Amino acid sequence: MSDTLNGTNIAILATDGFEQSELVEPLQALRDAGATVHVVSPESGSIKGWDQDDWGDSVEVDRPLGDADAGDYAALVLPGGQINPDKLRTDDDALDFVKAFANAGKPIAAICHAPWLLAETGLAEGRTLTSYTSIRTDLKNAGADVRDQEVVKDTDGPFTLITSRNPDDLPAFNQAIIETVSESMQAA
Fold first, then answer.
1. Looking at the DSSP assignment, which residues form a beta bridge with residue 108?
2. End-to-end distance of the chain based on CA atoms, in angstroms?
3. Beta bridge partners of 91
4. pTM
5. Which terminus of the chain is more solvent-facing, meaning fewer CB atoms within 10 Å of its CB: N or C?
6. Angstrom distance (rounded) from CA 159 to CA 138
């Protein structure tokens, strides 16, 4: 699988407080599959993760959000954690970036609390999703059909949505992203 995504650019949108494993593990899995992955953030320099119950490691920002263009990427990954998506859903530029992927018909993958961004942008409405338990009511209120599964891949719309519940679901989440991006690149 080391060359599945060769020549493919993927963005991970995050800010301080991202759940450590939910950024680092997809980043590594996508790079291992041959993708070029950019961590995009409203911050420049580096952003600090949250690792279960305390601050985790920092990750370098590859592209400031103001310089990022959804047109340069084949897909978007949204890591969770409570802090990260809560901060991003109040950032109009971050919301516009997410909506740009949807408008272009490109896959969006969100795990844990990151589906908050899908609710905030109106992208959850009419879609089938999963998430961390505590935000499922928010997603239902945003018009989503919410399931309790390790990964939900909703292809019944103009773009594919991949969602997962928590770090335990990362292997299935990462696999679903790689398969979806590979399929969309082959169809292009």
1. 76, 161
2. 20
3. none
4. 0.97
5. C
6. 21
Quote the tokens at residue 49. 């993760």
Cα 75-122-13 angle, rounded to 5 deg: 35
Active site residues: 112-113
The structure tokens listed for 142 are 């945003």
Tens of pLDDT, residue by residue, the chain (188 residues): 467 899 899 999 999 999 999 999 999 999 999 999 999 999 999 999 999 889 999 999 999 999 999 999 999 999 999 999 999 999 999 999 999 999 999 999 999 999 999 999 999 999 999 999 999 999 999 999 999 999 999 999 999 999 999 999 999 999 999 999 999 888 77
Q: Is the separation of the CB atoms in 132 and 113 below 8 Å?
A: yes
Name all contacts of 115-122 with Cβ < 8 Å and 24+ positions apart. Answer: 115/78, 115/85, 115/139, 115/144, 115/163, 116/85, 116/86, 116/89, 117/78, 117/85, 117/88, 117/89, 118/142, 118/144, 118/161, 118/163, 119/89, 119/144, 120/89, 120/95, 121/95
